[in-house]
Amino acid sequence: MAITTSGLHHVTAIGGDPRRNVDFYLRTLGLRLVKTTVNFDDNATYHLYYGDASGKPGTLMTFFPWKDAPRGRIGTGQASVTSFSVPESSIGWWQEHLRATGVEVSRVRNSDNEETLTFRDPDGLVLSLVAHPQGDPRDPWDTPLVPAQHAIRGLHSVTLSVTEEDATAAMLTEDLGLRFLHQDGNRLRFEAGDGGAGALVDVLVTPDAPRGLTAAGTVHHVAWRVPDEATQVVWRDELLDKGVNVTSILDRQYFRSIYFREPGGTLLEVATDTGGFDVDEPLLELGRALKLPPWLEPKREEIEALLPALDLPRENNPEVAAP
């Protein structure tokens, strides 16, 4: 494989009530809502993007939230844990903050000497906050809801749950260009690019675990970074030549994407760094209004009638929000 990824681009999950989703990820986790749009394949639900101030690749967690979606089952064939990076000195603050909001938290130190808080969002999605010992130089979204010195810096890693590791490990190393770092029991760690927070994936091998069921509270797909569309075209051709079943290049308005499954079952995406969330609204106003791609604008009135209003805290757009 001539082309390799530099790290995670985003993780997309399925949620329940969109207003509850916004409340948790903005007010409890202190992320910024950088885009309010719809699922391009099912316009009856939002597609909500959370991240840093501008929604840089590697900071993004996105959701398809259906109010009445049934609860899914986390298991093999899925990304079973999504981890965010926080400062090493902030774990204690986050533990108290989450408990104060009624979130149950477990605290451990893993074999990489990373202190980790694990918890669930309101729909049961498993999340963790990880203090990477080498630190994380990325600037956080600065909001009074979560002080900047403690704020999430971006994605840290994802955990893929599989029943057998060989084929999944081969795709990660041979088709995505990741490097195997080490194995700790039934957990294998790989890194992309320069490594560190935002470029890690763990493969958890659980042969007897039940198969995951994709619905509310589960990850839909994991996206990896590619610098531009020209590189993506070459990469797609290489994957096709190796017999991987890859989609055509899809216009996601803010980036371009291809999709395929790794052998263990998790849906993967390769998304371009080019594009950005300020292509259809100013940086200071990100997330405030429903944005639709040109091909859906003729259906705006119909789409808006299906979607509940969102209650965004003024801190999401402090410079432009009404006092």
In short:
The protein has 323 residues and is an alpha+beta fold. Helices cover 16% and strands 33% of the residues.
Describe the protein's architecture and organization:
There is one protein chain. By secondary structure, this protein is of the alpha+beta class. The protein has one domain: 2,3-Dihydroxybiphenyl 1,2-Dioxygenase, domain 1 (Roll). It is built from 5 helices and 16 strands. The strands form 2 sheets. The protein has an 8-stranded mixed β-sheet with strand order 2-3-4-1-13-16-15-14. A hairpin with a 5-residue loop joins strand 7 and strand 8. The longest helix is centred in the C-terminal third of the chain and has 13 residues. It is globular and about 50 Å long. It starts with 7 loop residues before the first strand and ends in a 17-residue tail after the last helix. The model has no long low-confidence stretch (mean pLDDT 95).
How many β-strand stretches?
Answer: 16
Describe the biggest sheet? 8 strands, mixed
Apparent shape: globular
The CATH homologous superfamily name equals 2,3-Dihydroxybiphenyl 1,2-Dioxygenase, domain 1
Task: Provide the residue-averaged pLDDT.
Answer: 95
* C-alpha end-to-end distance: 53 Å
- CATH class wording: Alpha Beta
Rg over CA atoms, rounded to whole Å, is 19 Å
Q: How many helices?
A: 5
Q: What is the architecture at the second tier of CATH?
A: Roll
Question: Structural class from helices and strands?
Answer: alpha+beta
Regarding quaternary structure, how should these chains be classified?
single chain
Helix content: 10-25%
Question: What number of structural domains do the residues give?
Answer: 1
Protein name: Ring-cleaving dioxygenase
Pfam family, one: Glyoxalase
InterPro entries: Extradiol_RC_dioxygenase, Glyas_Bleomycin-R_OHBP_Dase, Glyas_Fos-R_dOase_dom, VOC_core
Keywords: Dioxygenase, Oxidoreductase
